[in-house]
Amino acid sequence: MDKQFFKRYLPKASTMKKHPNLQFFGTLLHDGNLWHLNRRSLSGGMAIGLFMAFMPVPMQMIFAAALAILFSVNLPLSVALVWVTNPVTIPPLFYAAYKLGAFILGTTVKDIHFAVSFEWLTTTLLAIWRPFLLGCFLMGALSALSGYLLVRLLWRLQVKRLWQERVAKRRLKKEQKLLKKRQRAALKNQQII
After folding, report:
1. Model confidence pLDDT, tens digit, residues 67-90
2. Of the candidates 50, 45, 46, 74, which has an alpha carbon nearest to the alpha carbon of residue 60?
3. Number of Cβ atoms within 10 Å of the Cβ of 182
4. What is the Cα–Cα distance from 79 to 102, expressed in whole angstroms?
5. Is 179 left (phi over 0), alpha (psi -120 to 50) or beta?
6. Does the pTM of the predicted model rise above 0.90?
7. How far is residue 185's CA from residue 111's CA, in Å, rounded to a whole number?
8. How many domains does the chain have?
9. Which residues make Cβ contacts (< 8 Å) with residue 121, sequence separation at least 6?
10. Across the chain, how many H-helices and E-strands are there?
11. What is the residue range of 145's domain?
């Protein structure tokens, strides 16, 4: 993974430290590991952010930040990835989670019409909570694992590519040095004759 990509799109540490919703973490935000861009920190931040994105709890960002602090991984990435589930993506993703949970539990999928009301919460959600939570947990765990492995793989490929470029530059430098040496030797031989 290219560090510059993350530097460009992730919020700055100073901005995150001043965020009002994160102030109660206090001095915990001053841990340098929360802001580093390395393979371990980014892959862990990716896993936490994607896992928390599928958890149907309020204030997912706060939970993602707390987990990032607990595991000492990249905080901005873990908080930003929570927005994978946003007001536009929540209905299809959570419905898919419900269907997955129903499939695993072997229950029938009910036709659900979402409504933001206390009545909906007490009737519909109470009827589907088991398959819904199981599906959310599984989708969160699978996306976290996939994101973690993807970052690790892309980081390794990036390091390999950079290493190959470095080796090629060294080889080219060596060849140029050898060529100059041969040219000087040939020029000396011409001057002697």
Report:
1. 999 999 999 899 999 999 988 888
2. 50
3. 10
4. 29
5. alpha
6. no
7. 86
8. 1
9. none
10. 8, 0
11. 3-192
